[in-house]
Amino acid sequence: MKILVADDERDIADAIGIILKFNNFESDVVYDGTSAYSKANENVYDCIVLDIMMPGMDGIDVLKKLRDENNNTPVLMLTAKSQVADKVNGLNMGADDYLTKPFNKDEFIARINVLLRRSKTYNSNTLSCGNIVLDTEALKISNGETSLRLAGKEVELLEYLIHNKGKSISAEKLIEKIWRDEGGDSNTVTLYIGYLRNKLKSVKASVKIVSDKEYEYCLQETE
Amino acid sequence: MSGFYGENLFILESALKQMLTNIDLIKCYCKSIGMHDPIEHFEGRIKTEESMIEKLHRKGLEPTIENALTKIHDAVGVRIICSFVDDVYTIVNMVRSMEGLEIFEEKDYIANPKPNGYRSFHIIVFFNVNLPGETKRVPIEIQIRTIAQDCWAALEHSLHYKKEIKNVELIQDELKRCAEEMASTDLTMQTVRQMINGEI
To answer: Looking at the 3D structure of chain B, how many domains does it have?
Structure first.
């Protein structure tokens, strides 16, 4: 599990990185909003910890931009402010939880775990990407005219790729997110990516799964 | 049947036989060069007199033999069933390159399924039939589809004979859902074949 941490108070940001490492999470730590936004676009994170008050883009700006761009990674807002209005604003902009500094490290980790546990159920039933709509409940993709049913794992895989459109994702990460403890290896991923490629093509999707490096996959708009 | 088609029945039967032979030759050719045979099975039929007359009426045409052989294009029909979706297009290309015929119309209901979920590739050709002393031009409708698409079409067709079906909309939705599941399974099977062949 990899978490992005953004806080302009370097001591606090680094301390959060250490707490996460101690609890077996990987993390990237940045110290301003602009870096947080670009990191969130470059990499796949399981959760983002965002401070509100940061120079340049503040935490709310970063959050709003990510949500506007369909990035549904769970976000925990952190701030020294304790006013109710700030909490409400953050939550309305798409934050998933809120923690006021100073915080207890055990509570922080517990809240991160809750977000990771819940992240699967946060998403709506339909996801649009290019000219296709994925219905995660009816298990189908459609271009508006032609529809095709998908198997459960195909839906989970495509949903994850859509949420991380434009990013290169390793087979290892996909096994961790989609197959979890059920057993799956790079061959399983190759086969399921093959299923989705053929099925996207069949509904004339304007997106495709490219693989610039072996065992790395990225959903992109077709040219 | 012979009453309506008259002496033309011989021409239609000859067209059917020659087309079926051509298709059989595709199978033999694939076997001879050690290539995967794209054809699972194939069949053909001459449209019965009753259904031809019914179709002419339905289309608002006079029930004459001229109309039956010029305005309607499936007096002779051939169906080719393939194992995989890719095979359908392989066969389409082979039909396109057959000698002695002209493609009149192609309809790709696999890329663009009918609203009810029907999937198949239809080609209407004008086929030159070699008869003693002359060559006749006969329209033939060729339907090419996968086993799964054929299975769906057979079930859907059988329901047309059942009068007064309750919950028509529900049944239509369910049939469409089956078509979408079977189409998906077709592509899953094709992907598995690609993996076996080391193509992915």
So the answer is: 2
Domain count, chain A: 2
Minimum-distance CB partner of A194 among B113, B183, B191 = B191
Which of B85, B146, B188, B190 to mutate to test binding with chain A, by most A CBs within 10 Å of its CB? Answer: B188
Element (H, E) at A165: none
Helix (H, G, I), strand (E, B) or coil at A223: coil
Cα–Cα distance for residue pair A41/B129, rounded to 1 Å: 64
State the DSSP string of chain B. -HHHHTTHHHHHHHHHHHHHHHHHHHHHHHHHTT----EEEEEEEEPPHHHHHHHHHHTT----HHHHHHT-S-SEEEEEEESSHHHHHHHHHHHHT-TTEEEEEEEETTTS--TT----EEEEEEEEEEETTEEEEEEEEEEEEEHHHHHHHHHHHHHTTS-S-SSHHHHHHHHHHHHHHHHHHHHHHHHHHHHHTT--
What pTM, to 2 d.p., does this model score?
Answer: 0.75
Higher pLDDT, A86 or B187: B187
Do A209 and A200 meet the contact criterion of CB atoms below 8 Å apart? yes
Put simply, whether B180 touches A (Cβ < 8 Å) is: yes
Instruction: Give the per-residue pLDDT at B1.
Output: 43
Per the structure, the complete domain to which residue A141 belongs is given by 126-221
Q: Find, in chain A, the residue whose alpha carbon is nearest to that of B188.
A: A195
A73 shares its domain with A153:
no
Q: Let me know whether A133 and A28 are in one domain.
A: no
Summarised one tens digit per residue, pLDDT across range B130-186 is 998 999 999 999 999 999 999 999 988 887 777 777 777 888 888 999 999 999 999
